[in-house]
Amino acid sequence: MTKIIYVEHNGTQHEIDVKVGLSVMEGAVKNSVPGIDADCGGACACATCHVYVDDAWVEKTGKPDELEASMLEFAENVEPTSRLSCQIKVTDALEGLTVKMPASQH
Amino acid sequence: MTDGAVGARVVIVGAGHAGGSAAAFLRQYGFAGAITLIGEEPIAPYQRPPLSKAWLKGEADADALMLKPESYYSEHNVDLRLSAVAVAIDRAARTVTLGDGGTVAYDHLILATGARARRLPIPGATLGNMLELRNAADAERVKAILGPGKRLAIVGGGYIGLEVAASARALGAEAVIIEREARVLARVACQPLSAFFQDYHSARGVTFELDAGVEAFEGETNVTGVRLSDGRVLPCDAALVGVGAVPNDEMARAAGLACDGGIVVDLAARTSDPAIFAIGDVTRRPLPLYDRMHRLESVPNALEQAKQAACAITGKAAPAPEVPWFWSDQFDLKLQIAGLPFDVEEIVIRGNPADAKFAVFHLKAGVIVAVEAVNAPPEFMMGKNLIGSRKPVSIDKLRNPTVSMKEVAA
Ligand SMILES: Cc1cc2nc3c(=O)[nH]c(=O)nc-3n(C[C@H](O)[C@H](O)[C@H](O)COP(=O)(O)OP(=O)(O)OC[C@H]3O[C@@H](n4cnc5c(N)ncnc54)[C@H](O)[C@@H]3O)c2cc1C
Ligand code: FES
User: Fold this and answer.
1) Whether residue B16 has its Cβ less than 6 Å from ligand 1
2) For the CA of B134, the nearest atom of ligand 1
3) Starting from the edge strand earliest in sequence, which strands make up the sheet with B207-209, in order?
4) Over the stretch A28-51, which tens digit does the pLDDT of each residue have?
5) B131-146: buried (b, 16+ CB within 10 Å) or exposed (e) per residue?
6) Which ligand is nearest to the CA of A42?
7) B60, closest residue in chain A (CA to CA)
8) Residue-range definition of the domain harbouring residue B179
C-alpha cells in the first residue's frame, strides 16, 4: 500500500492507501474519489483522468511517454505538471504523492 | 411523485456499462430516492473493452474491469440485484416483472439492456468451442482456449475480430480471419484504414480469407474446421463469431415503446413513454451533428446517455451533445475514431500509413465530419474539437503533417 493524496479542485483532500501496481487513476476510481472520470478505463484514449502532479513529485513520477504527451497537449487547462493519472503506476517510491484535479474533466 | 424527491424510485434494467454508470451519476447529481439495478449477469457492472484486449492478454486482472468497487453499491444505497432478469414491463402499473415472478415498482425506469452477439444460423453453430465475445463469461471461455499451438478461426473482420486476433497472436496462438466482404472493417472504417490494418496484422502472422462465405462449422462434438462456400475447410481448435450485435429491445417492443432496430430515444434519453428512459447499445438515438438517428456501440455513448437520463431525472439541464468517439487497441496500435463518416465528399490522409502513425479525415463541404487516427492523438483530439465546432478547415494545411494540428484549427 502506498499513500496517495488526491486534492479536488475545491481543495477537499482524500488520503488513500493504494495497492502497489495499480495506477493513480485506479486508486481514485476504486475509492470513489471524485474528479477523475476515466472514461476509457485507462487506455490512454480519453484524457479524462487528467491531474496536476505536485511540484515536489514531478521528478519521481517521471515524464509522460510520447502518446500520453500528445494526448495532454490537446487536453483542456493543461499545465507543466499535467499527467494522465492512468499512466502513473503506483510504487513504494510514491508514498505521499499529491495530485490535484482540474475543475472538470470534460 | 416529484423528480429526485425522497421516495422516488428509479429502476434500471441491465447492470452493464450504461446501467452501472447511470446509477452512479444519479447519486453524484444528488438523487436521494431508491435505485434498483437489475442485471442478469452474476457480477457487478464492469467494462467490456479490455475483454478483447488487455484482459485477454493477461495484462489486466478481473478487478481492474469493475466500474466501481463491490462496496460502492451498499455504501450508496443502490439495490444491486445480480443474476436477476427482467422479463416484462407493465407501463400502466409502472412495474417490472422479474424472471422469478417478483415485481419491482418504478417512478422512472431506465432500460440499459445492451446488445447481444449476432449468431450465424448455419450447421455446426452449436458445436463445442464455438465462441462469441460479449461478456465476461464469454471472455473466460476464449481465454481458456487460446495458447501456443492453438488455431483460432475468427468469422468477421470487425473490431472485435481484429482485437481478438491480435491478442491471440500475443498468446502464441494462430489466427485466421474469415470475412464476407472484400476488406476488413468494411462496415466501420474507410478503405485506407482497412488496408493498413490488414497489412499490419498479416505482418504479425494473422491470415485472412476475404470475400469468403462460411457454409458450416465442422466437427463431432467440438468444432474442428470452418467450411467455406468454395468447398475448402479451414482447420481450427475453436471458432469465434464476431459479426455484429443485435440490440436487446424485445421487452421494450412488447411493452409498446417505439423501437426501430433499437429503442428510439430523444436527447434526454427519453423513450416514447415519458417515465421510461433507454441508454447505451440498445438505443437508436438522435445525432444532432449529423441530423439523423443512429445506434452507437461505444463506451462514450453509454456514458453520455447515462448522464442524459440522470440529468433528466434529477431535474438538471441536459448536458451538451458530445461528438461520438471510439477507440481500439491492436498490437502496439492505438486507433481513435471521432465522428461518423456520413455523406463524405472528400478524404484527406495526414501522415504516412507506412510509419504506423497517420490519420484519415473525412470531410463534407470543407468541414471535418469524422477522423480515424492511428497512433496520432493530436489528430484525434483536435479533429474531435473541429467536428464539434463544424469549423471549416484548409485542406492544404490538413494534408501537410509539418503544419501542426493547432495551426490547422487556428
Ligand atoms: C469485447 C468488447 C470490446 C469492446 N471494446 C470497446 C472499445 O474499445 N471502445 C468502446 O468505446 N467500446 C467498446 N465496446 C463497446 C462497449 O463495451 C459497449 O458499447 C458498452 O458496454 C455498452 O453499454 P451497455 O450498458 O449499453 O451494454 P452492456 O455493457 O452490454 O450491458 C448490458 C447489460 O444488460 C444485461 N441485460 C440485458 N437484458 C437484461 C434483462 N432483461 N434483465 C437484466 N439484465 C439484462 C446484460 O446481461 C448486460 O450485463 C466493446 C464491447 C465488447 C463486447
Ligand atoms: S483513463 Fe482515459 S486517458 Fe486515462
Assistant:
1) yes
2) 53
3) B130-131, B238-241, B151-155, B174-178, B207-209
4) 999 989 999 999 999 999 999 999
5) bbbbbbebbebbbebb
6) 2
7) A22
8) 130-241
Q: Give Cα separations from B22 to A42, B11, B249, B403 (angstroms).
A: 20, 11, 18, 41
Probe ligand 2: pick from A22, A30, A44, max atoms within 8 Å of CB?
A44
Grid coordinates standing for A27? 486508486
Q: What is the ipTM of this complex?
A: 0.94
Q: What is the mean pLDDT of chain B?
A: 96
Looking at the structure, do residues B148 and B237 belong to the same domain, yes or no?
Answer: yes
Domain shared by B13 and B110, yes or no: yes
| Residue B66 lies inside a defined structural domain of this protein | yes
Is pTM beyond 0.90 here? yes
Residue B388 is assigned to a structural domain of this protein: yes
CB-ligand 2 contact for A47 (6 Å cutoff): yes
The total of structural domains in chain A comes to 1
Residue B264 lies in a domain: yes
Do residue B214 and residue B303 come from a single domain?
A: no
The answer on B358 and B213 residing in a single domain is no
Does the beta-carbon distance from B299 to A67 stay under 8 Å?
Answer: no
C-alpha dihedral, B261 to B262 to B265 to B270, nearest 10°: 150
Return the CA Rg of chain B. 22
Same domain, B156 and B304: no
Asked whether residue A105 is domain-assigned, the answer is no
Q: Do B300 and A46 touch (CB under 8 A)?
A: yes
User: Which residues of chain B are within 8 Å of residue A26 when distances are taken between CB atoms?
Assistant: 64
Interatomic CA distance for residues B217 and B227, integer angstroms: 6
A48 lines ligand 2 (CB under 6 A): yes
